[in-house]
């Protein structure tokens, strides 16, 4: 794990896993850009973190929002694509409203894609960068796609595919792109889960601060590579 201080941007950082990831990165000495859909949410977390933390408004479904944040904060070294929604728990694939599926794809897949397009070129030019996609076991073919939340599962499987594509594109540039399955985490999405956000954040931050010889284009769980 690198100990050098970097600029790290976290999406969906106003609560749950994103907030815990921001806090851990800040505690390690990184300069964190806390992003959320509203200024109040982002600024509240940045104020709690204290010195070196900045806030930015970022709705990942807005086509231009990530570009505006790039213009506001400049290049970053680490991106944690954490923003995500789940709308269709308990829906059958044959009956889920397609509009719900589209909304989940827009946030969970295309949102991460937009953020990467805004910030990845800087990383490549500077010769160092880390991108972490916060994924899910529901989108793992090896684990078995979850039919209980079909649109969400498809969005996370697609996010995994994007991870592989970006890792292949950036191979040999000093940029590492990986996906993390944090497991069932106690958040607004899964309030019954036993694992807390702080534990999940440790694994995500580990992936976000890998050394230069670390893996790229892999699916991680508990700091181990797992099958897609």
Description:
By secondary structure, the protein is α/β, with parallel strands linked by helices. The protein has one domain (7-226): Rossmann fold, CATH 3.40.50.720. It is built from six helices and eight strands, in the order βαβαβαβαβαβαββ. α1 (16-27) crosses α6 (197-208).
Order of helices and strands: EHEHEHEHEHEHEE
- Average pLDDT number: 93
CATH homologous superfamily name? NAD(P)-binding Rossmann-like Domain
In total, the number of domains comes to: 1
Radius of gyration, taken over Cα atoms and rounded to an integer in Å: 16 Å
Structural class: alpha/beta
Pfam families: adh_short
InterPro entries: NAD(P)-bd_dom_sf (IPR036291), SDR_fam (IPR002347)
Keywords: Oxidoreductase
GO molecular function: oxidoreductase activity
Q: In terms of topology, how is this protein built?
A:
Elements: E1 7-10, H1 16-27, E2 31-36, H2 39-49, E3 54-57, H3 65-73, E4 78-81, H4 98-126, E5 129-134, H5 150-169, E6 175-180, H6 197-208, E7 219-221, E8 224-226
Helix pairs in contact: 1-6, 4-5
InterPro entries: NAD(P)-bd_dom_sf (IPR036291), SDR_fam (IPR002347)
Keywords: Oxidoreductase
Family: Belongs to the short-chain dehydrogenases/reductases (SDR) family.
Please outline what is shown here:
This protein is α/β, with parallel strands linked by helices and 228 residues long.
Relevant terms:
alpha/beta, Rossmann fold, 8-stranded mixed β-sheet, globular
């Amino acid at each position: 794990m690198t100990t050098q201080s970097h600029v790290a941007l976290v999406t969906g950082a106003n609560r749950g896993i994103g907030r815990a990831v921001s806090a851990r990165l800040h505690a390690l000495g990184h300069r964190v850009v806390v992003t959320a859909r509203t200024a109040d949410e982002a600024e509240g977390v940045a104020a709690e973190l204290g010195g070196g933390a900045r806030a930015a408004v970022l709705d990942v479904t807005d086509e231009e929002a990530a570009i505006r944040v790039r213009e506001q904060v400049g290049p970053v070294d680490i991106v944690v694509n954490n923003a995500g929604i789940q709308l269709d728990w308990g829906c059958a694939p044959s009956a889920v409203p397609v509009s719900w599926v589209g909304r989940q794809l827009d946030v969970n897949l295309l949102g991460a894609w937009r953020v990467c397009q805004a910030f990845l070129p800087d990383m490549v030019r500077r010769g160092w960068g880390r991108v972490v996609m916060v994924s899910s076991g529901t989108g793992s073919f090896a684990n078995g796609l979850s039919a209980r939340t079909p649109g969400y599962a498809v969005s996370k499987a697609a996010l995994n595919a994007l991870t592989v594509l970006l890792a292949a594109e950036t191979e040999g540039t000093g940029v590492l792109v990986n996906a993390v399955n944090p497991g069932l985490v106690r958040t607004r999405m899964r309030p019954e889960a036993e694992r807390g956000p702080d534990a999940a954040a440790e694994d995500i931050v580990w992936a976000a601060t890998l050394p230069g010889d670390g893996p790229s284009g892999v699916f991680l769980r508990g700091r181990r590579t797992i099958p897609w």
